[in-house]
Amino acid sequence: MDQVSRPVSTQLNTLSPKSLFPNLGVGLGLRSAHYPSILNQKVATPWFEVISENYLGVEDLAQGRPLAILEKIRNDHEIVLHGVSMSIGSTDPLDGAYLKKLKNLSDAIKPAWISDHLCWTGVEGENLHDLLPFPFTEEVLFHLVDRITQVQDRLGRRMLFENLFCSFGNDGMGVSIRTQ
After folding, report:
1. Which candidate among 56, 126, 133, 161 keeps its CA 20 to 30 Å from the CA of 99?
2. Statement: the pTM of the whole predicted model exceeds 0.90
C-alpha cells in the first residue's frame, strides 16, 4: 500500500516535520477589514490565517462572498485554516458534520495546514465559547491521541494543535510536561 492510500495515522514515521508543515515565514490573521487592501494592492505578507468556522456555514462552497474573496486572496498568498471549536479534548463524540464541512473547506482552499486548540470547548453538545483545560494524565493523553488520529484520518491530512491550556500547576498531575 502506498503512502497516499494509507490512513494518515500510519504515515507518521514516513514523513519529516518539514514536509508536513512548511515554514512560510510570518503571516497575518485575515479579517474582512483587510479585504480591500489585499485585493487592490500587492501585499508582501506571504500567508494569511483564517478562522475555519467563519467559512463552514457556506453549504455550497462555490457560493458565498467571503469564500469567493478567500479564493482570490489564495491566488497570491498561502492560506492557513485555524479552528476554534473542534473541542478535541471533549468526551463528547467527535462532530462528524463539523469535520465533513472542514474537510470540504480544506479540499476547496488547499491550505498550507490546519490547526486548532488543544483543549475542550463544550460538553453534551453545548459550545461554551471558551478554551477549557484538562488534567495532565495518561488517560487524557491516550484520549487525545485517539481523537487526533480519528480527525486526521477523516481529513486525510495532519493537523497542528496549539496552546495547551492549563489554568493550574502541573504538580502531581500524572504526566510531566517539558517547557523547552
Report:
1. 133
2. no
